Amino acid sequence: MSDFLERNGLQTVAQHFKDLFLASVHRDGAEELLERLENETDFFEAPAGAKHHGAFPGGLVIHSLNVYRRLREITIRDLTPRDALGPAPISEREEETVAILGLLHDVCKAGVYHIERKRRRNQETGVWEDYLGYTFRDPLPLGHGEKSLYQIARFIRLEDHEALAIRWHMGAYDTAARTDLRDLSAAMDATPWVWRLHEADMCAAHIDERGTDE
């Protein structure tokens, strides 16, 4: 279980997410989108995955906050000239983009992980045992980035660079990229936000959340 979640509690973590979102995102429909996530989905209780990083209640919101933090750091790094004496400031518009991409890129994961009784062999005793684990079932199989993009765009208007970043945030792990890398490459050429969000997502999953599966 995440140390951050244990220290702060799920309610406090969820409130931190909501405060960050409302402080940074000022577009029409933002409050309605947040209200839907809170009242009509399990976004704030869902895991980030079934087996690996964030495979516990609240893992998705923890992952989203980690990606937000990483993306903000990466953006500052990229905007800061190499010979600068200090970090470059982020404009209000860039802060909004960071919040939208970091906090919302994985809204597609709400409602797809279901707790079920499973069987596994105990590695120490060799005896088969029952346990509760997550099973993935998606009632709206649009694709990963595509589904997040669809769900966000129902409420707030996205800039082109934001839509591209959300669509391709899985990078080469996206199933579409496995058969044809041209669209992914074109998206990365079109805007740095695509690879910034992908880098932030990878850092969060493989560094910040390493060993956080339950």
List keywords for this structure.
globular; mainly alpha; 10 helices; 214 residues; two-stranded antiparallel sheet; 53% helix
Overview of this protein structure:
By secondary structure, the protein is mainly alpha-helical. It has one domain. 53% of the residues lie in helices and 8% in strands. The protein is built from ten helices and two strands, in the order αααααββααααα. The protein has helices at residues 3-8, 10-24, 30-39, 59-79, 92-104, 144-153, 160-167, 175-179, 182-190, 192-208, and strands at 113-121, 128-136. A hairpin with a 6-residue loop joins β1 and β2 (128-136). It starts with a helix and ends in a 6-residue tail after the last helix. InterPro entries: HD_domain.
Outline the secondary-structure elements.
Blueprint: H1 3-8, H2 10-24, H3 30-39, H4 59-79, H5 92-104, E1 113-121, E2 128-136, H6 144-153, H7 160-167, H8 175-179, H9 182-190, H10 192-208
Antiparallel strand pairs: 1-2
Helix pairs in contact: 2-5, 4-5, 4-10, 7-10, 9-10
Domain HD: 61-186
InterPro entries: HD_domain
Protein name: HD domain-containing protein
